[in-house]
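thread from #wetlab-drylab

HS: before we spend reagent money on co-crystallization trials with hypoxanthine, can we at least see a predicted complex? here's what I'd submit
DV: go for it
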Amino acid sequence: MSIIDEFCQSKIFIEGLSILRPKTLIILGSGLGDFAKFVKNPVIVSYSDIPFFVQKSIEGQSGELVIGLIGQHPVYIMKGRNHYYQGLTDEEMRYPIQMFKYLGVNNLIITNACGGMNPSFKPGDIMIIEDHINMMGRNPLIGDNVDIIGPRFSDMSEPYSLLWIEKIEEIAKSYEIHLKKGVYVGYFGPSYETRSEILAYRQLGGDVVGMSTVPEVIVASHAGMQVLGLSVITNMATGISMNKLSHDEVLKTSLEAMDKVSLLILKFIAFLE
Ligand code: HPA
């Protein structure tokens, strides 16, 4: 079966669930899944029910697709996402984003929990992702190119829309939310980084580090989507603070930042209308 046949089967299943045809996909990172409560009359489906969709859930992420309206704007919401550290192949990593492109999605709002490396950041801060550094040693586009989605060699000069960065800064200012801005380093995981790795990534120009987002944004960029990336700094990275890192701490801080992140995304979506 060809990849297009697989997209078709996923599309028929998903489009059979709702009359809405969203052009916006929101991916919710660790501890941010509650944002889906803002969807009116949601249709909720487990990833495992969607043909060809890969599902491997982790704590704090439910593995569900939510379809519905936020205000007047139709959205797809991915509550939970896949990570390389779960043992997924490049093909499995690129499938959901390419499939959503096939369904007509052009806008991606992506969130994550991350560790702060920039010493001027603190847990609970929210950072607009301006750019990223891929330290995963993998690229989800490796393998056969899907020509109807994007070109073999894709430009990465503006993976995060400059216009959208300006817009979210404007929104944050009007609600007196202070946002940081910086570079996200994608780390393979699942262990957290060593002190020396963090020192190295800082030297390379990174401000925060996390285990997601980079693969999805590479695929979205290849597919010609506009991307807004928001990172919640849930802890200071190894060696920046002397605390030991734990996923419980990540989830706790992420939940605390939820209200601010939600407000930002809700107002941003209104701008997309
Ligand atoms: N490192 C990598 N991933 C993370 C971190 C971190 O410190 N915090 C939350 N996700």
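DV: The radius of gyration is 18 Å.
HS: ok that's useful, forwarding to the group
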